Amino acid sequence: MKKGLPIILTISPLWLTGYTTPVIGGDNNMNNTDGVYITEIADSKRYRAEFVELFNAGSQDVPLSGWLLEEIRSHSQSAGATTTTQLEGTIPAKGFVIVARNDSKSAFEKYFGVSLASNVIYINSKNRLIINKTYQKFSLKKGSTLVDNHEGAFLRNRKRIAVRTHFRQFNNSAFDMPRFAVKRASPGFLSKKQAALFNAAAGNSRGKPKMTAEQPASVSRVNEAMRTYYASAYGKTAQQLKAALNKIIRGHKALTYWAVWNALKDTDEAPNNPNSVILLYRQTVQSKNSNGKGANRWNREHVWPKSHGYFGTRKGPGTDLHHLKPTNVRVNRGRGSLDFDNGGRIVPQAPLCRKDHDSYEPPDAVKGDIARMLFYMDVRYEGGDGYVDLQLVDYTGTNGPLFGKLSTLKQWHKDDPVSDFERSRNQKIYNWQRNRNPFIDHPEWVQEVW
């Protein structure tokens, strides 16, 4: 028996222009928390000169009571170790926090040849902060809320100060900036390239004042930049809207099928377990490194089945992250190429799912996610660019490039609105393949297109 579901609708803006990627979350998320970012990480041969720099891009001071800088190490002698540094004081608007490994403020200033301004808070972590010279991850948190995240390897230069400022954002963070190295560390200041990127984020253009490294720009004007990204779609409906969205999201950077493994380890990382991914149909977590063949491992599920369009695992629809998810091998095999709909018997290997002879019902928690993945696939792959023309239809038992059931997917979309995890995943996918799912950013467009 098919199930009826209540209607809920949410709207989420995005921002994407220049070197930046969209804001995660809506207008209500634009608060002080959203304005604090990890802007610099320095690894020094003189260990006590190591530091992490935070920047408050907002227009208001931010009290740091309850804020943490969490560090997950990768050095062979301390791999996986997690340490936290309690932050303190208040970071002024357009101000900085320097979390140093272990040195007095005066000795720190002397080493780097700087005089920290009055808008810079200096914190001695007393050796809690230990930056490795290989892969490492830093998380800035307000209580249990993830504010900003930085992960990667660190470089070295002639002063043996390694600085890498590669923003990979999650949750409420607003920026994704390209990695770059500078000739020397600059605690308490934005680099010129950072200032330029913050400047672009504020919408400054010809005829408007340019911000300098000593005068970083505000980042509050995200809605204006969001409108720029979707400018060609606004005001359109039905097939005109669909055509405009196709033009915006097509031409993405197609990954190899092998690259999808590492991408899914990033896009589907469990929020509270960075060494694991979330399995789509079981809604459980499993080690990132347990991927591959074998009944108890996880593999790459094509939510729009490969046989519905015969695209296989080739670049394009076969490797598009927007519909690829980690799934238990046995459960993936059991789902096969069935359409999605309500009803059926419980699936023993995935008890949150049901299936019958012509359809598969996923867990309630991801019904909306799956619907929006399929809406994306229908719009992205319209033919004419060397890829198959995929189409959603309102029945089950489909074959060829058709897939169903559209009315059920629309109901799932309304019942299971866009979540923070889904917004985060959408942004991570942009980092990998440079396009986004518009139905996560604008859920209201589902009704307009279908």
Question: How would you describe this structure to a colleague?
Answer:
By secondary structure, the chain is of the alpha+beta class. The protein has two domains: 189 residues, Immunoglobulin-like; 214 residues, no CATH class. 22% of the residues lie in helices and 22% in strands. The strands form seven sheets. It has a five-stranded mixed β-sheet with strand order 8-7-2-1-11, with no helix packed on it. The chain starts with 35 loop residues before the first strand and ends with a helix.
Fold topology:
Elements: E1 36-44, E2 51-56, E3 62-63, E4 67-72, E5 82-86, E6 90-91, E7 96-100, H1 105-112, E8 120-124, E9 136-142, E10 145-152, E11 161-163, H2 192-201, H3 222-229, H4 238-249, H5 259-267, E12 269-270, E13 273-278, E14 285-287, E15 298-302, E16 324-328, H6 329-335, E17 339-340, E18 345-347, E19 350-355, E20 359-361, H7 367-380, E21 391-392, E22 402-403, H8 406-415, H9 420-433, H10 438-441, H11 445-449
Parallel strand pairs: 7-8, 17-20, 21-22
Antiparallel strand pairs: 1-2, 1-11, 2-7, 3-6, 4-5, 4-9, 9-10, 12-13, 13-14, 15-16, 18-19, 19-20
